[in-house]
Amino acid sequence: MQQRGDEVYSSAPMLRLLDEQLRVLTPGLQRCAGTHGLVLDASCCRVPPALPLLGCWTSLALRNPHYEGDVQASASEPLPFVDDAFELVLVRHALEVAPHAADLLGELVRVLAPGGTLVVTGVHPLGGWSAWVHLRTQGKSPSLQLPWRLRLQLERNGMLIEQIQRIGSIWPHAADTRSNPASPLGGGYVLVARKRRQSLPLVRLRPLPGRVPANGQLSPSVRRNSIS
């Protein structure tokens, strides 16, 4: 049966995949610290993860052609945030429903603070989940992203890739009783990247030449070999 994109992302198989992705990411996310985090969901806002070292969240949902949630804005325009605003950016399947996924990914890097963490989750386009998604969203199929292409774009933007992993069952309705949701043929993926910190130029200071005062007394801070 044909469904809208928001219905697919609210379906039981997709909710299970989202939960499995979060289970894999949680140990690393628990170490993320800062004052602000951004979570961007596909179609509807969901509760951000509870992270003890992160101050507060800004929650958005991408419902074309608008961002909804804590901020209202057009999805065809740059994100309404200043540069380097967030120490953690969590993107849950939102690239799949973005009008221009590459532009949105660049914006997410822009608003991420140096040293901050970017997390992207999605449905892997090579597998049984891809066919399931397209079958149920005929005419409005999400644009599923290949993780290796996301990796190339992020590396061109100066990001360090820390993790790429497939997650979940092979088929959306397959029963999965494994305690570890990671699977080489899983229908979803997680990608974790870190923004490089800006390096400060090292400048060697040259001492200014000193002069002997009229009384002949030198300050203790003056180097005698600098006297002219």
Strand count, sense and closure of the main sheet? 8 strands, mixed
* Element-level helix/strand string: HHEEEEEHEHHEE
Order of neighbouring strands in the sheet with most strands: 4-3-2-1-5-6-8-7
Averaged pLDDT:
87
What characteristic shape results from the CA principal axes? globular
* Total beta strand runs: 8
Rg, Å, rounded: 24 Å
How far the N terminus sits from the C terminus, by CA atoms, comes to: 89 Å
- Taking pLDDT < 50 over at least 5 consecutive residues as the criterion, the unreliable ranges are none
Q: How would you describe the overall organization of this protein?
A:
With 228 residues, the protein is α/β, with parallel strands linked by helices. It contains five helices and eight strands, in the order ααβββββαβααββ. An eight-stranded mixed β-sheet has the order 4-3-2-1-5-6-8-7. The radius of gyration is 24 Å and the shape is globular. The model has no long low-confidence stretch (mean pLDDT 87).
